[in-house]
Specification:
Length: 127
């Protein structure tokens, strides 16, 4: 049995702007507002700044991210889950394939089509 080789990080040129918006959306979702920290450590503040230089962190557009969340939610279920897997959850592709009942190629196609649907939905909303 041969395994499919799919590059999930490949983004078509006409979808690069949407890809950037989705990366911003993922940063917004993963910024800790989702309660990913154990309740015991939620109020903890580290003193690590005393010994380590400040890190550069990408700026998150907090106005665009909720709009993307609402728009992603409107996608058909498999496309929505494929986009969420690709940008937010980032688990092994085989887990996403099993959960959605897709092959690697099918998962890539659903995430690619999901990006295109988002482009079309947001273009229609701005017209």
């Amino acid at each position: 049995m041969s395994r499919e080789v799919v590059d999930f990080h490949r983004v078509e040129e006409h979808q690069i702007a949407m890809h950037e918006r989705l990366l911003n959306w993922a940063r917004w979702l993963n910024s800790g507002r989702g309660g990913s920290v154990s309740p015991m450590f939620r109020q903890y503040r580290s003193n690590a700044w005393q010994w380590h230089p400040a890190e550069h962190r990408p700026i998150c557009d907090t106005l665009d991210a909720p709009l993307m969340e609402k728009t992603v939610y409107k996608l058909p279920e498999k496309h929505r889950m494929a986009v969420r897997w690709l940008y937010v959850y980032r688990c092994a592709p085989i887990n996403a394939c099993r959960a959605l009942g897709l092959s690697h190629t099918g998962l890539y196609q659903h995430s690619r089509d999901g990006r295109q649907m988002l482009i079309n939905m947001l273009r229609g909303a701005n017209s």
